[in-house]
Amino acid sequence: MKKFITIVMAVFMIAVLAGCGNTSEEEQTNKEVNVSFFTGKVETVDLIDEIIAAYNEQSNGVTVEQEYQNDASNVVKIKFASGEAPDVMTTYEQEFVDQSKYMDLGDMNEWWDRLIPSMKESCTDLNSGKQYRVCTNMTMAGFFYNKKMFAELGLEVATTWDQFVSNLEVIKEAYPDVDPWFIFGEAWHLGHLIEFMPHGYLKAKLGATACKEAMLSNDTEKLNWGAADGAMATFAKNLVDLQNKGLINADVLTATSDNCIDAFVTGKAAMFSNGMWCLSSILEKAPDMADDIGFAPYPAYMPDGVPVVLVAEDSGYSISADTANSAEAKDFLNYLFSAENQKKYAEALGSPSAFKDVDAKWAPQSVVDGVNAAVASATNIGFTNEKPAGFSGDDAGRLVQDLLAGTYTPEEFAKAYEEAWNAGF
User: Rounded to an integer, what distance in angstroms lies between the CA atom of residue 227 and that of residue 414?
Assistant: First the structure.
């Protein structure tokens, strides 16, 4: 009898433990997890919110929450420093690569196998040869211009700075109420002007890899930021000259991206610098303008320079190396990267997909043809991801704000840029 009771008790305990184990597994499956998604990409906030809502609805307890910050590159530094790094982020800084803050994504073959090879190369860290982010799109940046206005005035796209200034002067004389070149004063945008023009000059002159190496090692002889006749001082001098001649908008320091788009679609601005990410905003406000949207490279502004156009990775995503939610973060990105969502994303953003299996009509054919022609006619450059740790693109943009406010002479600006760059290391 005792033996029988012992066996019954043992079976009962096994059943209880099995039941507990099943409950634990079920709780694990249905656990509530919050995944933070951090971005500075204003153009995609609404669409990403829509995709997040659809993901959360079917995610079995995982809730993704998006946070947008205008000054994202600096805000994320505070988050890393305070131990509150987002699980997933679109901000990417070499500083955090070097500090092992990002998760190595090299084994995510389900993503890389779908990606255009050149885009995987663009996502590869030069120092380690590893991938800490994955991009979903390609983008181009240059000058958007009003083709109808150019045709009326008999203007050709400029390849040199003298031709560029001449075009602006002709526009100003013919249309006194039009801003020939509209520049908006948001720090990221002004920082892009430095990336695409002075940095672009060096990328074309040295070559992409050599320029990256020079930036990473702070090769001052090759970069030569502070020289009175160098790329940075010449860029600043050109910008101030245009400002003094009234060839850029008078409200440059307070103008926003929305102001720029409004001015362009209403014919109050002839040209502006930006990337394909702004195309959807133009077409949303002026769908009939597609055939009048021109796209041109940045003209050569140094004696030994050449026209350049940005052709680079866009919409990059990284995962924090310290996240406790790596599986959930990857699951969300898998959902975001689906061909269906990426087609929607590329068409909403107005930017070609980097995925081979995504067939997106990202722009009207007339725009696509113009962009392809510009890309073929100029030296292609990439983004400057090799900036020093303590000197972001937004920081550079704030120096340009000071330049346009009269705080610096062009020579002083070049010196200030060099000092900020060096201090950033």
Answer: 7
Q: 139-312+365-424 maps to which CATH number?
A: 3.40.190.10
Q: Given this model, what pLDDT does residue 240 score?
A: 98
pLDDT band at 251 (very low <50, low <70, confident <90, very high): very high
pLDDT given for residue 8 in this prediction:
45
Beta bridge partner(s), residue 146: 293
Report the Cα–Cα distance between both ends of the chain, in Å, rounded.
80
Quote the CA–CA distance of 201 and 25 in Å, as a whole number.
58
Look-up: residue for tokens 């995504």?
358
Query: Residue 23 above 50 pLDDT?
Result: no
Sign of CA dihedral 375, 180, 247, 261: negative
The pTM of the full predicted model, rounded to 2 decimals, is: 0.79
CB 297 within 8 A of CB 308: yes
- Does residue 141 have a pLDDT over 50? yes
Same fold, 36-138+313-349 and 139-312+365-424: yes
Neighbours of 25 (CB within 10 A): 10
What is the Cα 173 distance to its own chain's centre? 35
Number of C-beta neighbours around residue 211 at 10 A: 24
b or e along 185-203 (b: 16 or more beta carbons within 10 Å of the residue's beta carbon)? bbbbbbbbbbbbbbbbbbb
pLDDT of residue 3: 52
Domain boundaries, the chain: 36-138+313-349, 139-312+365-424
**83: phi > 0 → left, psi -120 to 50 → alpha, else beta; which?**
left
Rounded to the nearest 5 percent, the helix, strand and coil shares of the chain are 50, 15, 30
- What's the residue count for the chain? 425
Mean per-residue pLDDT of the chain: 92
- Chain centroid, CA 202 distance in Å: 20
Rounded to the nearest 10°, the torsion over CA 111, 116, 117, 122 is -90
Greatest Cα pair distance, the chain, in angstroms, is 111
Say whether pLDDT at 1 is over 70.
no
Contact 390, 423 (CB under 8 A): yes
Record: fold of 36-138+313-349? D-Maltodextrin-Binding Protein; domain 2 (3.40.190)
